Amino acid sequence: MKICYLGTYSKEYIRNRVIIKGLMTNGAEVIQCHYPMWSGVEPRIGQFKGIIGFLRLGTKFLVAYINLFFKALEIQNKPDVLLVGYTGHFDIPLAFLFSRLWRIPLVFDFHVSLWDTFVKDRMLVKKGSLMEKLLRFVDRTSIRLSDLLFLDTDHHIEFVANEFKVEKKKFRRFWVGEDPELFHPVNTKKFKEFTVIYFGGFIPLHGMEVIVEAARRLQKKNIKFIFAGKGQLFEKTVRMAEGLKNVEFLGWVAPEKLPELISRSHVCLGIFGKTDKARRVIPNKLYEGIACAIPVVTGDTPAIREVFKHRKNIFLCEIGSGESLADALLELKRDGKLRKEIGLNGYRLFKSEFTPDRIGAEVLKELKKLKGGYHD
Predict the structure, then answer these.
(1) Is the pTM of the predicted complex or chain greater than 0.85?
(2) Which of 270, 263, 335, 345 is nearest to 300 (CA)?
(3) Residue in 209, 199, 231, 262 with CA at minimum distance from that of residue 42
(4) I want to staple 105 with a disulfide (CB 3.0 to 4.6 A). Which of 133, 147, 171, 276 is the partner?
């Protein structure tokens, strides 16, 4: 099967890496029609506020579209499916044009709603603003122009379908997963002191205040908290943790160094935020934690329970509660056998369900159903 993977997506982002590698591993021919527009894994919405921001955004897309247009024209022998990678919400109009010219299905890895992420979850865009209207319009348009869309959990599908008034049959669920060649257990010594690791972008979804509250409650319990990464709430988190001697901030850590850091730790932290989005997604960090075969503690949400089981392959605590997180960490510190079992079972689940090979096979199966199924 020949698949054109089109867009301004970040090649480094976990979702694109896993799907592209998974499709190729399962025998598909993947042609990447790509223009590297975003410096990170998603649009930096703050760059595009105001009239000047909109002009800057428009200029960037004009350049991107021109490049993608001519790259697509160079493709010999039309593909069977056109798949737009994440973040491709802004790329859909151009992709729609080529899908109709080639008369092939247009598939979009929607992954998350830009409107939900930047307006409701991270609160970086004001409700009622022009930017909010633009993001909602872009989400709605990308959904309606696509023939099939990918999301990461059933609860996420339920939300997007209801919010944008779309039938659920237009979506397919595919786990995010991770590449075991990048994240895997490292044979190394554990930290001397019982160590809990948080790594990520310090966003509201992660519940930074909950993690700091747990650290405060465990100051005298010989439990150390390591924070790796930077992002939206980094400075605020540092201020919240001021005076805590059991907390260490490492700042940005290169991805290739994370597996060893995770493997040296005793427990990996998931997400604990009270945002609506936190209840319907499974974060990247969780897959990366279990891929390193150490136990993960995360907030108890409907999305997590779609595939994980408490005390078997994950340890769940009350979402939004520093006290509950602290109690969970104390229990895991005391019970080394339970820690080992959860870490091992989580790793087994990762190998059976969340690798590129497994996810790619499921994606390819759905794409083959679409082959030759284009309708005007």
Answers:
(1) yes
(2) 270
(3) 231
(4) 147
Report the Cα 44 to chain-centroid distance in Å: 16
Strands of the 171-173 sheet, one edge to the other:
29-34, 2-7, 81-84, 106-108, 148-151, 171-173
Task: Convert the pLDDT of each residue in 221-246 to its tens digit.
Answer: 999 999 999 988 999 999 999 999 99
- Residues 73 and 267: their CA atoms lie apart, in Å, by 50
Q: Residue ranges of the chain with pLDDT lower than 50?
A: 41-42, 374-376
Over residues 18-29, the pLDDT tens digits come to: 999 999 999 999
Q: Which CATH class is domain 2-177+355-370?
A: alpha beta
Residue 204 is classified by DSSP as: G
The three-state secondary structure class of 199 is strand
pLDDT at 76: 84
The beta strand positions in the chain, using DSSP E, are 2-7, 29-34, 81-84, 106-108, 148-151, 171-173, 194-199, 223-228, 247-251, 267-269, 296-299, 315-317
Q: How many residues does the chain have?
A: 376
- Token match 């591993």: residue? 25
| Bridge-based pairing state of the strands 247-251 and 171-173 | unpaired
Residue reference for tokens 């509660």: 321
What letter represents residue 319's amino acid? I
Q: CA-CA distances (angstroms) from residue 335 to 10, 162, 313, 332?
A: 41, 43, 15, 5
pLDDT digits 0-9 by tens, 64-99: 889 999 999 888 888 999 999 998 898 999 999 999
Domain ranges of the chain: 2-177+355-370, 194-353
CATH number listed for the domain at residues 194-353: 3.40.50.2000
Q: Answer yes or no: same fold for 2-177+355-370 and 194-353.
A: yes
d(CA 135, CA 125): 10
**For the chain, percent of residues with pLDDT exceeding 70:** 94
Tens digits of residue pLDDT in 275-298? 889 999 999 999 999 999 999 999
Q: Supply angle C-alpha 35, 39, 42, rounded to 5.
A: 90
- Could you tell me what percentage of the chain is helix, strand and coil, using 3-state DSSP and rounding each to the nearest 5? 50, 15, 35
The structure tokens listed for 335 are 């019970």
